[in-house]
Design brief:
Blueprint lengths: L13 H11 L3 E3 L6 E3 L1 H20 L3 E2 L5 E3 H4 L3 H7 L5 E4 L2 E3 L6 E3 L4 E8 L4 H11 L8 E10 L13 E11 L2 H22 L5 E4 L11 E8 L5 E11 L1 H5 L3 E3 L5 E3 L1 E8 L1 H10 L16 E5 L3 H21 L8 E3 L6 H11 L3 E5 L1 H6 L1 E6 L5 E5 L3 H26 L1 E3 L3 H7 L8 E5 L4 H11 L2 E6 L11 E2 L6 E2 L2 E5 L3
Parallel strand pairs: 3-9, 17-18, 17-19, 22-23
Antiparallel strand pairs: 1-2, 4-8, 5-8, 6-7, 9-10, 10-16, 11-12, 11-24, 12-13, 13-16, 14-15, 19-20, 20-21, 23-27, 24-27, 25-26
The structure holds one RNA strand.
RNA sequence: CGAGGAGUGGCGCAGCUUGGCAGCGCGUCUGCUUUGGGAGCAGAAGGCCGCGGGUUCGAAUCCCGCCUCCUCGACCA
């Protein structure tokens, strides 16, 4: 830890800052199980808000929720060759179904007689088990499209976990759709990409580049993969969401066919798409500061915190006023809901509470004490900027709502400015290498590439930078002009986005 | 899997070199005073020093074996 009270500053050790913040803001703990985390109520509240917003968007675009088992027969994984290659190395496997007491009294052991006939893989993703079901549900063009989402946990046995960003078990949503035509599946993949981009930018205040993954980086088993990519404060890219067009790969692997209007038997076209609790990590990485969590108002568990100041008889009057304010602020509403408001009545000093709520990312802090009460005033401070402003008590609800709106746009603008300041174009290999060397190096580097996997691999080997995506819309019109590959000098049709990634 | 580091009250750590009453800070509990940027004083509770073995009159400390975690690599839909 940086010191007893605060957290390690970002400039001193960014990784440590992130870990300190997650702990001190009470978002999550490391579990006793390696690679797994305990998501604490304050962190889970952010995830619930994300779920709520995304779930609405999925339903508005025609999807329904369902739930499939977490255990997948091992044989299912081998049905799609690329898919198993992509996940085999990180699967947890269930081999037995019973424990028993050891005969020597040393404790509990796995009962060797309870071995499963077919081992079960704990889902790293659910394509295989879901497509097994779809086979039974889809016979005719009338059964299509199938547009199902599930909220679930998945397990990927990662070698190097990091709270929220990469854990062995994580929470996510995964959408799995089936369509009659390639074009329809393509439209679906892009619709979801749009949902993800809108969620990142409008809810999380995180500007993202949306684009298509290179062959090296695409999902195992996909025809092609779309992604949204964000930039952190330490100049690395975070893949924040992906939407895959699976073509007919899984339909062929699981033999899912339908009779078309013309009476022909055809394999269906598929998509899958997901975002995970990694979004919580992304949120932290993009916005938070040396005083703790900075949460965008739409996703902040506490949008306004009222801190009553005073003691004895005077405190009673202050608490009365605070209760009245809380009621008005909630009723005021913002963004189509109540303003999530809390009065901090803990027996702690005001200074402690100020710091504590900054750590936990409360958007607006409202101070009220005897001094204010006499004048009919209170003091407001936004989590961004933080300067105190005086406000009439009668106006506090309206002012709070106004400040939430300012914070929501302010955070987005700040993150966008950071991304723009750290997005650059280079045209020579020396410049390119230099861009990724040293402590503060990185950011998005927009450069020409000859389109081959070999070149991408060589670039990654020498610089650790990978192609984050080929943007759907050029970030700058000139990016769409042809040029020469940064490494090989061969012809390139357009610039692509490179970065070191989390 | 490779290289480093660390396991000692709830949390963070010192003590180990040179064996001799298990300590400190934070937190917790009690009381009094305090309250506009992490309050003060007084008192209290709380530990099988990661596990197993060895050396010794005596081991947190020395020796051997094992386990776990962290950091940095490698790996990574």
């Amino acid at each position: 830890m940086g010191n007893e009270l605060g957290i390690t500053p970002r400039g001193e050790n960014y990784s440590q800052w992130y870990t300190d913040l997650v702990h001190k803001a009470e978002l999550a703990d490391h579990s006793v199980v390696r690679g797994c985390m305990v998501i604490r109520p304050h962190g889970y509240a952010i995830w619930e808000l994300m779920q709520g917003a995304l779930d609405n968007m999925f339903k508005e675009t025609g999807h329904v929720n369902a739930y499939f088992p977490m255990f997948i027969p091992k044989s299912f994984l081998s049905k799609e060759a690329e898919h198993v290659d992509g996940f085999a190395k990180e699967c947890a496997v269930v081999t037995h179904h019973r424990l028993k007491n050891a005969e020597d009294g040393s404790g509990v052991i796995v009962d060797p007689e309870a071995k499963l006939e077919e081992e079960l893989v704990i889902r790293p993703t659910s394509e295989t088990i879901i497509w097994n079901s779809y086979k039974g549900w889809i016979q005719s063009w009338r059964d299509l499209p199938v547009m199902i989402n599930q909220w679930a946990n998945v397990c990927r046995w990662e070698m190097r976990p990091r709270l929220f960003l990469r854990t062995a078990e994580f929470l996510w949503q995964e959408g799995h759709t089936a369509h009659a035509t390639y074009d329809e599946a393509e439209e679906e993949a892009l619709t979801i990409l749009g949902v993800y981009k809108r969620f990142a930018e409008e809810w999380m205040c995180v500007p993202v580049i949306d684009g298509i993954k290179s062959e090296n980086e695409k999902f195992a088993g996909a025809d092609h993969t779309y992604t949204i990519e964000a930039l952190t404060q330490d100049f690395k890219a975070i893949q924040a969401g992906t939407s895959h067009h699976l073509g007919q790969n899984f339909a062929k692997a699981f033999d899912v066919t339908f009779q078309s209007k013309e009476g022909k038997l055809e394999h269906v076209y598929a998509t899958s798409w997901g975002v995970s609790t990694r979004l919580v990590g992304t949120l932290i990485m993009v916005h938070s500061d040396d005083n703790g969590l900075v949460a965008p108002p739409k996703l902040a568990p506490v949008q306004a915190v009222i801190i009553p100041i005073g003691r004895g008889e005077k405190l009673e009057a202050v608490l009365d006023a605070a209760a009245g304010m809380e009621k008005e602020i909630r009723a005021q509403g913002w963004d189509g809901g109540i303003i999530r408001t809390k009065i901090d009545k803990r027996d702690k000093s005001p200074g402690f509470k100020f710091n504590d709520w900054e750590m936990k990312g409360a958007c607006i802090r409202i101070e009220i004490g005897p001094r204010d009460l006499e004048n009919g005033k209170c003091v407001l401070a936004s989590r961004l900027g933080g300067e105190k402003i005086e406000c009439d008590i009668k106006d506090v609800a309206a002012k709070t709502a106004e400040m939430l709106s300012e914070l929501q746009t302010g955070l987005y603008n700040q993150a966008l400015a950071h991304r723009e300041a750290n997005t650059s174009r280079v045209d020579t290999w020396d410049e390119f290498k230099a861009a990724f060397e040293g402590e503060k190096a990185g950011g998005f580097i927009v450069a020409h590439w000859d389109g081959t996997s070999e070149t991408e691999e060589q670039i990654a080997n020498e610089t650790k930078a990978t192609i984050r995506c080929i943007p759907r819309e050029p970030l700058d019109p000139a990016d769409a002009e042809p040029g020469k590959c940064i490494l090989t000098g061969k012809p390139s049709t357009q610039r692509v986005v490179f970065a070191k990634a989390y």
